[in-house]
Amino acid sequence: MRLAIIQDTLRSGGTEQQALAIAHGLALEGVETHLIVFKSGGALEEKIDERSVRLHALPQGPLRVDWFAPGLHRLLESLQVDVALPMGRMANCHAGLLLGKRHRSYRVVATFRTGRRIPWLYRKALQRADAIVANSHEALRRLATDFSIDRPEASHVIHNGCVRDFETVIPSFAPTDRGQRASPPNAFHLVSVSMFRAQKRQDRLIRICAQLPETIDWRLTLAGEGPNRPSCQALAHGLGVAQRVSFPGLLKDPRSLYSSADVAVHASERESLPNFLVEAQMAGLPVVAYDVNGVSETFRDQSSGFLIPHGDEPAFLDALQTLFQETDLRLRMSESARDNARRLFSLESQTNAYFRLCESLLTDA
User: What are phi and psi of 100, to 5 degrees?
Assistant: First the structure.
């Protein structure tokens, strides 16, 4: 079997990490795996094991943008791939074009793993693809209700696999000069790891934590990069909590940050299935998160964390105070979080699901 995973560029995002994980996992299962990018030079390219996964960059010339895919169909045909798997918005938009080709020898599996609106070409791909993979049941429901794409016979849910190893020794997390301060040993340490994009709403977390009682010695670490980071830093200063909020930037490996924390917090207004909450639970962190889109599928409410009605700040604050005050509850939720993540979000189960899907498409051909 030959598979081509298509990605616009390998930036340091959750979808891109999943693309690499799927590529390496299927290669280990004996699948000839190709990874095609529109724009080369992405931060994650250094993580590709080129002994098992073959990387191809499309010939953009001097343009170098993440939406231009010259010769994509021609490359897929020359590689004689059996299945093409686009990942992300741009790749799925181009899948909409691929599906219009008259002479196409490969199957196309469109993927849907976003909480944002999707362009017309993306919708075309989802309407015409040989199969659809969503990373949450809520995402499939949203496809039907928001975009009138309801194809139960072709639709599959494959949850994100956790891309990090939490079974071996965790590397040290060294404070940097980029805004990271080590938390005091007895501080109540809250953590969020996400890109600073408008829909991630890290500003909500700062505002919520600023309302915690003075009796709680709390610290909040907001790891990640993005256009909204400066405004969040300004907000922390404006609310007088700059000494309690850290901005360490993009962390290549946040595992030891998780190990130093007490609770994972998430206040996004749109989300498909956040990788951060999966990783945090693997590290044994209880979760407090707003109930948006696929967040509820990442953990068990009242067992491995608290699922808060969207926008209900008082309830979010109550949950944080409860976890601070009730150490035994926090420990029970920590164990439940770890068990839940291992059961639902292993790389092995994700790889097996994609392998079975590709096999079924070829069997039905």
Answer: -90, -5
Express each pLDDT in 165-177 by its tens digit.
776 645 444 444 4
Tokens of 43: 């931060």
Give 92-133 pLDDT, tens digit per residue: 999 999 999 988 999 999 999 876 789 999 999 999 999 999
Partners of residue 229 on adjacent β-strands? none
Does residue 339 fall inside a structural domain? yes
Q: What is the pLDDT of residue 174?
A: 42
If one counts the domains in the chain, the total is 2
User: Distance (Å, rounded) from C-alpha 343 to C-alpha 128?
Assistant: 33
CATH of the domain at 360: 3.40.50.2000
Is the dihedral angle over the CA atoms 261, 323, 321, 202 positive or is it negative?
Answer: positive
Give the domain extent around 236: 188-344
Q: What is the pTM of this model?
A: 0.75
Q: Does residue 103 contact residue 76 with C-beta atoms inside 8 Å?
A: no
Reported as a pLDDT band with limits 50, 70 and 90, residue 179 is very low
Distance of CA 254 to the CA centre of its chain: 14
